[in-house]
Specification:
Layout lengths: L6 H15 L14 H14 L16 H6 L6 H18 L6 H4 L8 H5 L3 H16 L3 H26 L10 H20 L6 H12 L5 E8 L5 E4 L5 E2 L5 H14 L7 E3 L20 E3 H10 L3 H10 L3 H10 L19 E2 L1 H13 L5 H12 L16 E9 L2 E9 L5 E9 L6 H21 L1
Helix pairs in contact: 9-15, 10-17, 12-13
Length: 461
């Protein structure tokens, strides 16, 4: 009877038989899985589309969470491992002190990029976030400028309001225009008297002038004579505005030398005579062809010595025009002196007064408006005046006079400074309004000059 096999032996024999029938497992050749890369891509895409919400504050994970399983060394599925890695990455963000990550700002836009962002170094992510904040905070220069403009306008409005409230001048009652004109006239008169240094009026001489003027009721005479050393004076209708004729050229000459002193004009500067400058009447320049050049000092000299109207128009243009000159005359205290027409002013629209002319000559004598060198040049030019039919006829030949005459049909005038043989000096100005070319006006000025010269000569002796 055969011997019965034991169970252990039967199992061992079966294993040997099975091993003989099949080759070893490690030697089995299996086909490569070509579907694995596709499955991996599908898996990553699926994981990227699933939202992973961050942990809330004070939220704890249970023992069955994937993190605890991973800590305890338990195996995790692939999807669970990726989710766990995301949670750990989120906790690293919070540990670094990030107040707000890209996921917190816009979780919808980062839903598909969170997996890719996990592979980016933390320094690169910080640079991107920093640049985004800087771009968000940057202000456009145009907006910045608009804000500054609005702020400036607001400050200006507030400042103007405060000034209007606290300015006492705005609450003062406005003066009457007639009262202002009276005050201005008083101021100008006091200014003129200060320049003229008029101290006491010479009553005997004034009486003589009045008697001479009364002999010609149809003539309107104005005159002023002032001793520049003592201030003694006499005047007749001195503030009356009359036609200046060519005496208007005296303040123009002063303005010219003012600009010479200021360096605005050179004495040797060449001025071109244009066709529009040529004027009829007195002077020889009108007979020269347009375009001829003259030096500035030559033009100024011919304006006074020959009373050349063309030269006068050239200087008016060179000095800036009549408006500019009138403003300068006002600044000198000449309230009745104005240029309203180019030369020749046959209508008599250019006006002045004997007080204005006396005031101007007094300032020239004192060297207030121009330099002493220019003053000497002016007196030297005025001494060369060709026409000596008015004031020079009333003085002695031993005396010298620097003057300028004026002559139009309705007015005759002469203004100047007389030097006596004994060194005394007085200024004189006389204007007579007359019927057209009435010769009595010329004789009246000669008589005025004679009476004044006699008085000042006797007073000096």
């Amino acid at each position: 009877m055969p011997k019965k096999e034991q169970p252990s032996e039967r199992g061992a024999s079966r294993a040997r038989n099975a091993s003989e029938r099949q080759p070893p497992r490690q030697r089995r050749q299996t086909k490569p899985n070509t579907q694995q890369p596709q499955q991996k891509q599908q898996f990553n895409k699926k994981i990227a589309q699933e939202p992973i919400l961050p942990l809330q504050s004070r939220q704890r994970l249970s023992a069955e969470t994937p993190i605890n399983r991973m800590v305890n060394g338990l195996p995790l599925p692939r999807q669970t491992a990726v989710e766990t890695y995301k949670i750990l990455e989120w906790q690293r963000y919070r540990e670094r002190g990030r107040k707000q990550s890209a996921f917190e700002r816009n979780p919808q836009s980062d839903r598909g990029n969170i997996v890719n962002n996990l592979n980016v170094p933390s320094s690169t992510r910080q640079q991107r976030i920093r640049r985004a904040k800087q771009q968000k905070k940057a202000i456009s220069p145009l907006i910045y400028g608009a804000r500054i403009l609005i702020l400036g306008v607001g400050i200006g409005v507030i400042a103007g309001t405060l000034l209007s409230i606290f300015d006492p001048a705005s609450r003062m009652p406005k003066k009457n225009s007639q009262l202002e004109a009276t005050e201005l006239q008083k101021t100008s008169n006091s200014f003129a008297q200060q320049n003229l240094q008029m101290t006491s009026e010479i009553e005997p001489l004034k009486k003589q002038l009045q008697e001479l003027a009364a002999q010609h009721s149809d003539l309107t005479a104005a005159a002023i004579f002032v001793d520049v050393d003592t201030g003694a004076y006499t005047e007749l209708n001195s503030n009356l505005s009359l036609a200046a004729a060519s005496t208007i050229k005296v303040p123009i000459l002063i303005a010219f030398f003012q600009d010479v002193d200021a360096g605005k004009i050179r004495l040797d500067e060449m001025l071109k005579m244009e066709a529009e400058d040529i004027a009829q009447g007195s002077g020889e320049m009108q007979y020269q062809p347009p375009g001829k050049l003259y030096s500035a000092i030559e033009v100024a000299t011919l304006m006074i010595t020959n009373s050349d109207n063309t030269a006068t128009n050239m200087l008016i243009k060179r000095l800036g025009g009549a408006t500019i000159l009138n403003q300068r005359f006002k600044s000198w205290g000449l309230n009745k002196t104005a240029i309203r027409n180019l030369l020749p002013d046959l209508e008599g629209t250019n006006t002045t007064s004997v007080r204005d002319m006396g005031n101007l000559l007094a300032q020239i004598h004192q060297g207030k408006l121009i330099s002493l060198r220019s003053r000497d040049r002016i007196f030297e030019i005025m001494r060369r005046t060709v026409n000596k039919s008015l004031l020079p006829q009333g003085i002695d030949k031993s005396a010298t006079i620097a003057h300028k005459t004026g002559d139009i049909g309705t007015s005759i005038a002469d203004v100047g400074i007389i030097d006596l043989p004994n060194g005394k000096r007085y200024l004189a100005a006389a204007i007579v309004k007359r019927p057209h070319n009435d010769a009595r006006a010329e004789e009246l000025i000669r008589q005025f000059s004679q009476k004044a010269y006699q008085f000042f000569s006797q007073a000096s002796n």
